[in-house]
Amino acid sequence: MFYKLYCTHLVLLTFVLYEVTSFSGFQMEPSDISQTEGEPVYFNCIVRKLDDSEYVSWLHNGHKISNNGVIITNTYSHYSMDFDSAFGSYNLRIQQVQRRDKGGYTCTVYDSNDQIVEKSRTANFTVSEIPQQQYPICSSTKTSYRIGQRVVLQCISEKTTPLALLKWVHNIGGSESGLKESVNGIGKSFGTWIVLYLLMFQRTHSLSGFNKEPGNENQAEGDLTYFNCIVRGLDETHYVSWLHNGRKISKNYDILSDTNRYSIDIDSNSRKYNFEIENTQRQDKGEYVCAVYDSSDSIVVRSRTANLTVSEIPQEPYPICHNAKLSYSAGQSVLLSCISEKTSPLAHLKWKHNSIDLTTGLSEDTSSGNYKVSYSFIARQSHNRDIFICELTTSVNPTIRRNCSIGPINVLYAPVVRIEQTSDVILGNEAIFICYSDANPQEATYQWSFDPPIDETMYYLENEFILRIKKTTNSLNGIQVICKVTNSIGSESNKLIIKVKTRGVIADNEDVDYDKAIDENKDISDSKKVNKNQQMLQTKSPTINNSNTNSDISISLVVIIALVCIIVILGLALIPVGYMRYTRRQPSDTISRGRPVSIPDVYFEPRDHIDLMLPQLGITAPWMRTVGVQVPGECEYDVTYNTQVMPQPRQVYYTQRMYPASSL
User: Fold this and answer.
1) Strand ranges inside 111-160, DSSP E
2) What is the pTM of this model?
């Protein structure tokens, strides 16, 4: 049986959230603000991620006023930075707003070359001006008037934005007639009444509202959410709380909720009570209100309601792939399902086969609690052992890519049969026919037949898929050999017409490798139960004999070549040995007659002696050996003849034994 092999690579695309190492945008940008002169103001700037070489600066009307957390000019001494590099916070705070502070404020990211990488939106800051302390100034054109004479009184104030309200009062009541206004660099009010009372300007220190209120936010699940709340004129008996869907979750510094993801960013100087949510979750969505309470826990004033929308990301187990059946028959309909959470917004589910996106046969279903994308197709033989992959992505976080797979798909199909012969059918020779089958399930039965039938003694089966005809005759020419294979799905057959050729005719068809055919069907034959009562005849055809003869000749040739190589290698190895043996320099000496006399390479003459005993010392003289050695100049130094029993000079030897110098 022939097996069709499929090479399937399953690529698991597993991605985890990763950190982007370069600037990736602003999480919060400054917004337009209008503030009263003398009050504090707060501009927000939160960046997602910076490169090590990048830094953040604030620009006021195009002029750089800060580098990261440092104000770089003395002109803006009432400015400060609320700086936290780990959090990505580069907020700008103005302690007491002055008129010159109005204008455009931009949060800007620079690279190491001081080139602008990215700018936030420009926030326009409007300052509500208050006349200076010396105003209003009252004056009269004359010091005295006659009865019936027109009296002109002047009340002067600065020309501010917005203009101050000047009102003349007579006998406590207001004067509305005879008034005239003029704006010429300064504001003036004219009247015809004698001034009895003046209305002076005074700044209120009671609570009058919010300098900054929270705005609507749309955050991805897992990101940071930030709500602003800056109050104006907070009384000592008041406190600030945040409400989530009407439930109090904070009181000044304290978080009243059980979660540890909430925190309050408080600055008593600027009266800032900003609310932060780390790792935003789905349950955080809803309405948020910044409210001021009095000592009796009654709401004094509340900000506008800010709505938080959480863009949801499917949880980690998703996507989940589902296959309705374990196996399919060829021609059946296959339905594969890919399931994800029903999130807002919906995730994107995509089916792939052999790394190619599938665009047809898809259907979506959101009627249940989950979001499901199904792929249907008709099973074919080519789909057997195939793998289908479903990939999940989401617009909320493009870096998230998860997948699941179904397969290998088990497709059952009837056998696909073909017959091949190992070589041309030569008259008088043995002929071999092989039946190949590709089927699923593989368990199948083989049935051989001839059309028209032939004598059963002319052929035998080597195994169920190899047929041998012992000796071909002319009567076999044109006969059809039929192989029928049957499995649990169905049956299929194939036939081959025998063409008998005489010797010397060149075969038109390429010979089939018999050994390869045996290997291809080995797994099938091993899985079958062999009938032990069946007698297998072994017949060798002339073609096989010729093949064996050629094989013997090839082996002999290989052995001869190997022996020649070994002889050549040994000959090359002996060349240096012979050279060293027969070309070595022989030492010689020459006598007066000019005849060279050979002498040994090395000779020595040992001499042993004992020094005379020194009577005055009363000790035994040491035994010593002196060796004379002569070697040729080219010989290496041989330590064999370097014998020195006493390595020290005699004088040193006796000196060590406290001999006097005169005795030596």
Assistant:
1) 116-119, 123-128, 137-140, 153-158
2) 0.49
